[in-house]
Amino acid sequence: MTATRRTFAARGAALSKANRRLRIVLIGLHFSEIVARLALSLAKTHDVEVHLSNFGADNELTARLREQLEAIVSVHYHPRPHRKFMFRDGFRLARHVARFRPDVVHVQEAAGWTLLAMRVFNRFRPPLVLTVHDPLPHSGADVATRARNAWANDRLRRQASAIIVHGDKLVEGMIKIEPILQGRVHSIPHGVLGQALVARALPNTGAFLFFGRIQAYKGLGVLLDAAEILVSRGLEFSLTIAGAGPDIDGLRARIARLPMVRLDERYIPADEVGAIFGNCDVVVMPYLDATQSGVAALALSAARGVIVTDVGSITEVIRNGENGLVVPPGDANALAAAMAETLSAPELRQRLAAGAAATAASALSWDHVGAETVKVYRGAVSG
Predict the structure, then answer these.
(1) Which of 29-43, 90-104, 166-180 has the highest mean pLDDT?
(2) CB-count exposure of residue 340 (10 Å: 0-12, 13-18, 19+)
(3) Which end of the chain offers a freer environment for a tag, N or C, measured as fewer CB atoms within 10 Å?
(4) To which H or E segment does residue 142 belong?
C-alpha cells in the first residue's frame, strides 16, 4: 500500500464516525441550483467549498440564493466548460481542490472532459462521489454531443467511489448499464428547487402550466392533443407553456389555433420562476420518457399538484391522489381526463397542493437530502 493510500485509509477510519466534520468540495459546472442548495444544508455541520460555472450560476441562481451561498461557504466561479479548454479548466479546478484538501469531492455529472482533466492533474485524489442525473439519454437527445462526452463520462463513473441517482428504478438501470458499479450506486431524492413553501394560494382559475426546455421527450404534442379534447368538451381552462427548445417549431401552428394556450418562449430567469408557478393551479408533465425531474421539484416546492406520466422514477415522488395524478405516457385521452378531473374538483386541487407542500417539507427537503448524502460520503471515505 502506498503512503497516500495509507493516509486515506487512516483518515477514512476516523472520518467514518457519524459525528466527525467533513471537508467537502462540491462541483457543479451545470446544475448550479442543486449544488447551491445542497451546500447550504451541508455547511451547517461541515466545511464546504463550491465550484460553479459563471454561466450556470447566472442562469440558475436567484440573487437571494447567491447572496445566501456566498455568505456561508467559499464559492469559486469558472468559465463555461468547453472541451477545447479542458486541460486549462481542469488544471485550475485541480489546483483549487488540492488547496482545500477535502475528504471527499462531489461532482454533478456534466462537462465530463473538464472533470476528467481535473482528476488527471490532481495527484491528491480524495474519494469521488458522482451524481448521475440521466443514466440513459432522453429520446430526442443530441446524439453527437452525447457521443463526444460518452468516453469521459463513462470513465468518471468507473472512477467514482460512489454514484448518486434520484430513484430506486435508476439504481437498477445504472447497474444494468454498468454491472461493475454494483454496490456503488445509491438512491437519494432530488431536492426541491425554487423558493420552497412560499408560493401564493391557488388562483383557482383552471390554470395549467407546462414548464422547462421543450424537447421531444417532454411530450408537449400530447398535451396539445389533450387540450384540444378539453376544448371539444366545452371546458374552460388556460395553459401556459413557459420555456424554449428545439421541439417547439413543429408545434407553433397548433398552439396558435388554441386561444386558451399562451406561449412564453424564452429561458425563464431564476427570479421569475416562483411567480410563474404561483400563477397556476396544476403543473402538467406529459413526458414520454424521463429519469427524474427538476420541474417536479419546482412544482412541489411551490405547493402545486402535478399531473405526470408513469416514466422513470418520477412516480417515486409524485404519488397518485396524494400530491399529483399519474397517467400512462403518450395517452392524450387519459391526460385530458386527469386535467378535467382537477378542473371539476377544487377540493382535489387543494388536496394535491397540500400534499405537494408536505412532500417538499419532508422527503425532498434539503436537510433530509443533505443527511442522506453525508451517509454516502462517509461510506466513500471509509471504503
Answers:
(1) 29-43
(2) middle
(3) N
(4) none
Contact, 26 vs 50, CB < 8 A?
A: yes
Q: Please, which residues have CB within 8 angstroms of residue 365's CB and are 6 or more apart in sequence?
A: 191, 192, 196
CB-based contacts of 338, cutoff 8 Å, min separation 6: 307, 325, 327
Q: What are phi and psi for residue 184, nearest 5 degrees?
A: -110, 0
CA-to-CA distance for 273 and 338, rounded, in angstroms?
25
d(CA 369, CA 375): 10
Task: Please state, in angstroms and rounded to a whole number, the distance separating the CA atoms of residues 283 and 114.
Answer: 36
Q: Which of 119, 112, 101 is nearest to 134 (CA)?
A: 112
CA distance 238 to 235: 10
* CA 193 from centroid of its chain's CA atoms: 8
148: cell is 463526444
> Residue 320 corresponds to which cell in the numbers above?
397518485
Which of 27-41, 107-121, 153-167, 175-189 is the least confident region?
107-121
Among candidate residues 265, 252, 263, 254, the one with its CA nearest the CA of residue 227: 254
Cell, residue 177: 448499464
The DSSP secondary structure of 168-191, one letter per residue, reads HHHHHHHHHH-GGGTTSEEE----
Task: With CA atoms as reference, report the closest residue to 289 among 187, 168, 137.
Answer: 137
Task: Identify the H or E element spanning 242.
Answer: strand 238-242
Residues of 174-206 as b/e, b for ≥16 C-beta within 10 angstroms? bbeebeebeebbbbbbbbbbbbbbebeebeeeb
**Residue 23, amino acid:** R
pLDDT averaged over every residue in the chain:
89
Residue 29 makes CB contacts below 8 A (sequence gap 6+) with 51, 52, 53, 56, 78, 80, 81, 108, 110, 111, 114, 115
Global pTM? 0.88
Number of neighbouring beta carbons within 10 Å of residue 149: 18
**pLDDT of 290 above 50:** yes
Whether residue 285 contacts residue 314, with contact meaning beta carbons closer than 8 Å, is answered with: yes
